[in-house]
């Protein structure tokens, strides 16, 4: 079964306040709208037999989108401007087209103006960079995304490096990642999926400071920035990767586990310390003759086993997935607010 490769914002469909403040101290974001008390997410019980509570990414992503829409309306009334997000798609992969369509819909729903460029599979790197440059120079565009994966003949690093750091809403620019890694340095943008994981922990009141955290996976777009964010939030962080000798033993020490691997049911119940919080980023198709599509999506975490041991867990789908696009909208709004000096 072919697995879709996600860009940081590719999705099927925030950050503890202390970290949020740290990250944005140099570029303060406008106030986050407090969640009305009657809509603060509470940990809902899982299915029978499970003790863990469900961390509901659908619910939180809706709250974030509502907050973004409200702030955009306020900004428009005050400045006459709305945020703009440009997406560049090269080639005709069906999954990429779906993601781009979903992003466009999500932008429209909150009042972000979408710009889209579709280039053929055989487009040159120069053509892509030319469009990036145009968007870099367009003051109505506040975020630029290049849909990944790019065709094989293109150099991803060169192309992503052409995006102006002030419009790098995916947060993949080396300067943004570098600042995330350094003490007392703060990125302009945090990559959307790990930002979404932190937002879930934050909104569900999961304590991070002083806790042991394990991140499984170290990709540039999820695992590595997730580990950096947890560290900035004062967790003690270990990273497990494909060469780690004793992943089960290391993961069992964690109060917080974030898994971003892409292997269905890798993380078993025996890997989890009783009471841990588990965030499952993985999205893996597995054959399912009973599904009309012939497959269903599961995470990296064996939900059936882990939900009996953890204290809280994200489901797949409906956990981290919906958060990624919500964080993209949030990053685009922050970028526009900086551009218009709107607090
Ligand atoms: N929910 C969302 O919005 C969203 C967004 C992005 C990605 N995803 C999903 O998250 C998963 C990871 O995505 P990605 O882009 O980060 O993947 P990736 O680039 O393929 O990275 C996978 C990471 O997992 C590690 N790994 C592989 N096999 C392992 C094993 N057996 N034990 C421990 N670590 C192992 C790899 O280690 P090495 O570094 O040693 O190779 C690598 O660091 C995928 O299922 C993807 O679909 C979801």
Automatic annotation (TrEMBL):
Any single Gene Ontology cellular-component annotation: cytosol
GO biological process, one term: tetrahydrofolate interconversion
Domain Tetrahydrofolate dehydrogenase/cyclohydrolase NAD(P)-binding residues, every copy: 191-339
Keywords on record: Hydrolase, Multifunctional enzyme, NADP, One-carbon metabolism, Oxidoreductase, Photorespiration
Record GO terms (molecular function): methenyltetrahydrofolate cyclohydrolase activity; methylenetetrahydrofolate dehydrogenase (NADP+) activity
InterPro entries xrefs: Aminoacid_DH-like_N_sf, NAD(P)-bd_dom_sf, THF_DH/CycHdrlase, THF_DH/CycHdrlase_cat_dom, THF_DH/CycHdrlase_CS, THF_DH/CycHdrlase_NAD-bd_dom
Domain Tetrahydrofolate dehydrogenase/cyclohydrolase catalytic: 55-170
Catalytic activity: (6R)-5,10-methylene-5,6,7,8-tetrahydrofolate + NADP(+) = (6R)-5,10-methenyltetrahydrofolate + NADPH; (6R)-5,10-methenyltetrahydrofolate + H2O = (6R)-10-formyltetrahydrofolate + H(+)
Pathway assigned to this chain's UniProt record: One-carbon metabolism; tetrahydrofolate interconversion
Pfam families noted in UniProt: THF_DHG_CYH (PF00763), THF_DHG_CYH_C (PF02882)
SUPFAM superfamilies: Aminoacid dehydrogenase-like, N-terminal domain, NAD(P)-binding Rossmann-fold domains
Top-rank taxon: Eukaryota
PROSITE patterns, alphabetized: THF_DHG_CYH_2
Gene3D superfamilies named in the record: Leucine Dehydrogenase, chain A, domain 1, NAD(P)-binding Rossmann-like Domain
Family of this protein: Belongs to the tetrahydrofolate dehydrogenase/cyclohydrolase family.
Entry function: Catalyzes the oxidation of 5,10-methylenetetrahydrofolate to 5,10-methenyltetrahydrofolate and then the hydrolysis of 5,10-methenyltetrahydrofolate to 10-formyltetrahydrofolate.
Protein name (database record): Methenyltetrahydrofolate cyclohydrolase
Native organism: Zingiber officinale (Ginger)
């Amino acid at each position: 079964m072919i697995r879709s490769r996600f860009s940081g914002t590719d999705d099927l469909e925030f950050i503890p306040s202390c970290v949020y403040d740290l990250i944005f101290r140099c570029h303060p974001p406008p106030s986050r709208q407090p969640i009305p008390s009657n809509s603060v997410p509470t940990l809902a019980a899982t299915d029978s037999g499970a003790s863990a509570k469900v961390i509901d990414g659908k619910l939180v992503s809706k709250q974030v989108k509502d907050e973004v829409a409200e702030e955009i309306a306020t900004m428009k009334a005050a400045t006459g401007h709305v945020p703009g997000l440009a997406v560049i798609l090269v080639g005709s992969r069906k999954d990429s087209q779906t993601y781009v369509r979903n992003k466009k819909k999500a932008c429209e729903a909150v009042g972000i103006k979408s710009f889209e460029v579709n280039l053929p599979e055989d487009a040159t790197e120069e053509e892509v960079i030319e469009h990036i440059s145009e968007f870099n120079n367009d003051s109505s565009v506040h975020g630029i995304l290049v849909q990944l994966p790019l065709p094989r003949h293109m150099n991803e690093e060169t192309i992503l490096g052409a995006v102006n750091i002030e419009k790098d809403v995916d947060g993949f620019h080396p300067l943004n990642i570098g600042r995330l890694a350094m003490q007392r340095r703060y990125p302009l943008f945090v990559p959307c999926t790990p930002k979404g994981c932190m937002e879930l922990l934050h909104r569900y009141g999961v304590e991070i400071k002083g806790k042991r955290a394990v991140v499984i996976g170290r990709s540039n777009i999820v695992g590595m920035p997730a580990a950096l964010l947890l560290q900035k939030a004062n967790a003690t962080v270990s990273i497990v990767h494909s060469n780690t000798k004793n992943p089960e033993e290391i993961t069992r020490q964690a109060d917080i586990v974030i898994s971003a691997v892409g292997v269905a049911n890798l993380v078993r119940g025996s890997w989890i310390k009783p009471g841990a919080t588990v965030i499952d980023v993985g999205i893996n198709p597995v054959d399912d003759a009973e599904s009309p599509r012939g497959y269903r999506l599961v995470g990296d975490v064996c939900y059936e086993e882990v939900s009996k041991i953890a204290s809280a867990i994200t489901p797949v789908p409906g956990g981290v997935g919906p958060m990624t696009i919500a964080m993209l909208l949030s990053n685009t709004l922050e970028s526009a607010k900086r551009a218009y000096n709107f607090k």
